[in-house]
Amino acid sequence: MIVLWRVTQRCNLACSFCAYDRRLPGERCEADAEQIERIGALLLEHRRSTGERVLLSWLGGEPLLWRPVFDTSMRWHREHGIEISATTNGSTLHQPATVDAILESFCELTVSVDGLAAFHDNIRGRSGAWHRLRQSVRSLARKRDAMASALKLRCNVVLMHDNLEAFASLCRELVDWGIDEITFNQLGGRDRPEFYPTHRLQPRDVQTLRDLLPGLTEKLARSGVRLCASEPYLQRLHASAEGRAIDGGDCAPGEKLLFIDEFGRFAPCSFTSDNYGVPLPEVRSFKALPARFRAARLEVPSPACKDCHATHVFSKFASCP
User: Fold this and answer.
1) What domains lie within the chain, and their CATH numbers?
2) CA neighbor of 156 nearest in space, from 94, 213, 240, 228
3) pTM of the model
4) What is the rounded distance in angstroms from the CA atom of residue 280 to the CA atom of residue 272?
5) What is the H or E stretch that residue 184 is in?
6) Closest residue by Cα to residue 279 from 255, 293, 301, 260
7) φ and ψ of 199, to 5 deg
8) At what angle do helices 167-175 and 203-222 cross, to 10 degrees?
9) Is the pLDDT of residue 318 over 70?
10) pLDDT at 320 over 90
């Protein structure tokens, strides 16, 4: 079971494509102490009753700014055998205490990198961010290797028309960072609809990516780095670029993946919380959630299911063609 938990809306960067850009007004919500203990109990109960591996992945905002993140990670990993990961902008990885906590309790860390230095710094609204991130990730990788830690280091890139041309160069640069795996998302229009139209991937961009991937994948593999994608995932990107919807079909909601938002609602994915979300007080066990999600989908289908953008449905982490 993979559990994705968005624990905070707070972020310290100003990414032009993101709903959690620190410049945007409004209150920033976070998961509270009651949610921590209740969800921890559910994770433990599921692992004990099924014997199934449980991977909990912290999301944000910037999840490493959420104060309980490391204490909770260490406790759940040590006491409950929960595997821990996170997706981070990497802005705190220069702090020794953060690095030590990650190496002690995390099995995966995904760092967001959107391009080479000039592009990354501009899109994330912080001068010098790329160079500090490179130094921090390389230092983390060296310490991991010295400790013989099993931590997987992954970089995820938000692909848009503006940075596609430099994608191969970025991937080759990331080899030197000590990265094990590279993934990518396409720029989406839900978070910042005003940014999307002029920066989105166009059909010709997706074709350029298709042409690039086989050779790039092979070169990276020779350096020990895995580039992830799949044919269904590329089809999803192409459909989005052409403005075509793809129905999610039977995605087995809640059977292998759960999403929890900062308000404590359980859903099959981040796109369906408003339609299928089940509040934490109503959840006694993960086992009942798949049937509940299916019933909700039959009763009132979410518009998101008619044009599914949930990356796990399209095998984002599978091998490239």
Assistant:
1) 2-314 (3.20.20.70)
2) 228
3) 0.96
4) 15
5) strand 181-186
6) 260
7) -120, -5
8) 20
9) yes
10) no
